[in-house]
Amino acid sequence: MADSGHNDAFVEFERVQKSYDGESLVVKDLNLTMPKGEFLTMLGPSGSGKTTCLMMLAGFETATHGDIRLDGVSINNIPPHKRGIGMVFQNYALFPHMTVAENLSFPLEVRKLGKSEREAKVKRALEMVQMGAFGGRRPAQLSGGQQQRIALARALVFEAELVLMDEPLGALDKQLREHMQFEIKRIADNLGITVVYVTHDQTEALTMSDRVAVFNDGRIQQLAPPDQLYEEPQNSFVAQFIGENNTLEGVVQEIRGDVCTVRLDDGEVIDAKPVNVTKAGERTRVSIRPERVEYNKDRLQEGAHTLKAEVLEFIYMGDIFRTRLRVAGNDEFIIKTRNAPDQTRLTPGQQIEIGWLPADCRALDAS
Amino acid sequence: MSEATGPVLAADGTPLKRSLSRALRMQKLRALALVAPLLLFVLVTFIAPIADMLFRSVENEIVENTLPRTAAVLADWDADHTDLPGDDAFEAAYYDVFIAAERKLHTRLGTRLNYELTGVSSLFRKTGRALDDIGEVYQDQFKALDKDWDKGTPWAELMGTQAWIDGAQGWKKADGPLDRLVVRDDIAALLPATAAAYQEFADFSILEDDKSPLKEEPWTLVHSALYTDLAALDVSGYGGPRAEMLKAADALVATPEFETINTREALIDIEDGWADHEVWQTIKTYSPKYTSGYFLNAVDMQKSPEGPIMRDEDERIYGLLFKRTIFMSLAITISCVLLAYPVAWILANLPMRKANLLMILVLLPFWTSLLVRTSAWKVMLQQQGVINDVLVWLGLVSDTERLVMINNQFGTIVAMTHILLPFMILPMYSVMQTIPPTYLRAAKSLGANNWTAFWRVYFPQSVPGIGAGSILVFILAIGYYITPEIVGGTTGTFISNRIAYHISSSLNWGLAAALGTLLLAVVLILYWAYDKIVGIDNVKLG
Hints:
Helix content of chain A: 10-25%
Radius of gyration of chain A: 24 Å
Largest sheet of chain A: 6 strands, mixed
Strand order of the largest sheet of chain B: 1-2
Keywords (chain B): Cell membrane, Membrane, Transmembrane, Transmembrane helix, Transport
Strand order of the largest sheet of chain A: 6-7-8-3-9-10
Radius of gyration of chain B: 36 Å
Low-confidence stretches of chain B: none
Helix content of chain B: 55-70%
Transmembrane segments (chain B): 31-51, 326-348, 355-372, 410-431, 463-482, 509-530
Domain ABC transmembrane type-1 (chain B): 322-530
Number of strands of chain A: 19
Structural class of chain A: alpha+beta
Order of helices and strands of chain B: HHHHHHHHHHHHHHHHEEHHHHHHHHHH
Strand content of chain A: 25-35%
Number of helices of chain A: 8
InterPro entries (chain B): MetI-like, MetI-like_sf
Number of domains of chain B: 2
Mean pLDDT of chain B: 87
Distance between the termini of chain A: 32 Å
CATH class of the largest domain in chain A: Alpha Beta
CATH topology of the largest domain in chain A: Rossmann fold
Strand content of chain B: under 5%
Structural class of chain B: mainly alpha
GO cellular component, one term (chain B): plasma membrane
Largest interface: A-B, 27 and 19 residues
Distance between the termini of chain B: 49 Å
CATH superfamily of the largest domain in chain A: P-loop containing nucleotide triphosphate hydrolases
Oligomer: heterodimer
Low-confidence stretches of chain A: 1-6
Largest sheet of chain B: 2 strands, antiparallel
């Protein structure tokens, strides 16, 4: 699915750059290709350039350099209102002086649709977001979640093939947010629309998207489906940004194909999978997911590498136990274990031995 | 569940409502104490004077107070008739004007009635000066008969009670005011007119001159009254003090040689205005305590025997002025809206730092004296002024046909638009600031072009700012005074200039108050209409 050639490209960014002040680049050399029907999320910390990319696609910002194409046509010089792209704004931007139905009818009116056709489409769109009874209300009379639904319906009512969403769930509480994630995904799949979704919430990105583009410092750090992104981060930024992660710093001693040996800063030598280290002598950051670390000897898999560790803190979190350890001089080493009947609970001060498979241990760049 | 019935009780058993109001009372009192100084200040220096001023637009006690007898007599007179009122009216007028003249009130009354009928002022002034001539005819004859008729003490003995005379003997100024003279009942019954006139004289002399009636020679009015009484009544039965003196006078009056004077002819002789039917009609029309005259005047009408009628075409002025004031205020408001909207837009959409800088430019005129700004427009717009000079220099206007841009409506509208512009920009700006730019983006993303996005999405949300600015500017404009006074000439002045004229030059405060009340009413009506049409909730100042 993530596999996209140039032939079926629907949205394309080619060597796009953006600068606001003429001194620094907010977006540096962006290349991105999206097939039709894809749900792509731009994920990144604030200031990483993801919203700027979205605004360039919507037409509210112009690219300083490069080409943006929609369905094969360059849209750099097409004004926003002629792009036919639906958009859901961060604070919904529902027009406060119009009723819900008028809000939805607005894009149809400017497209000069007949009255009966407009009414039918508005009705259908409202029903799609389960807000059929709210057509006569004003936006101010709706709750945040309801406004969110209306904003979504308004972006969809004129049957745009591409819909942009700029942190649309940011203002909702956790429960509602989770519900709306599911809802948006369902509607997008049903309609077969292409969605570009911007968020800084990684859970949202992982649960909703076909592919996630992780932004940092104006560049896409990694563009991959959620599982790949989580399990095979390509650099230490992605590893840190997506999910929880343990890092151990050291120097690469030797690279032998799929395995490399790393001498950690406290002298311990471990095996790891080289991801973006190239030669011996290079500093590296070794990354291990907390749930891939095992301390129960019986459960250790064949070929696992073991290290000594001291328990510093044990946190009971219900479904899981979260334990903080001191490993190879790192006080912030976290392990997560499932709350199973046979699981032992660790006590602070305890000396244990932990282990993991070298394949789960990725040697990444040191920056 | 047992508590479901009856009032809810607080923990100590008192009803919760009472307990709550007691708890809140202290807070309310404290809040009241905080606003009390301002409230008092506004009440004393603002509300009360305005209420008093507005009251003056209907108040008309001066005629009734100054000419009480005349007003009473004229109440029965049919003013529609072209005949003059009867002798009793002239008699009453003689009494009233005489007393008013002694008190020096007749000129004020003349001024008041002169608003309604030109010439009354001089009528009263002249009459007041010559009125003694009438009474002197009788005074001289009585005096020739007996010198005591021209002295204070004999008169007091004839009229006053013994008790009062005893009290007044040896009175000195330093003792404080003398007691009011008390007329004996028998003499009051015998000589009613004389008693009334003498009482009037005694009161005046004690209260206003601070002199004892025992030492003062009575007014000639009293002698006239004595003649009236003696000619009509029989005094032969009188046996009180000074009976011989009175009876001798009575005998003198009965002789055919006694010279009499007709009050009607005497008055007309003094000033032939008294023979003018319109003068009497005006006095009668304006004798009630409250009058609609000022208001009628303020809408170019006047009273007539057939009820209120429009004034002559060439005397109408206020209707034109009101219309002009409203029209020009509207023109100023509209030009303010047109000029301010783009500026407010720019201000609201610029980054903070630049917006603040521009805001200073907007506010700069605020910090300049109003007079300076208005005078600057005079320099700019006059025929030998900057604009005309530039136009002539450019060759757009010939030197002999310089544009007239000041001392007319154009000049007033230009100068006042400039002066009131900040009042339009500020509310617009503060409303526009609250409209997030995402609305425009949303509209565009939905397919609206720039104009549609502005007109359908941005403009409706900025209407409250326009409303607030328009109300502010219009109400300020409609009562503006200084600028039209300076640059308005004759065609560009407002109703307020006329009000100021009546307050400070013509001193017709009643008319000024009526005009002011009407102006206030017009503003309130327009405000009400605005509320009905646009809704006052839609007005936001920020």
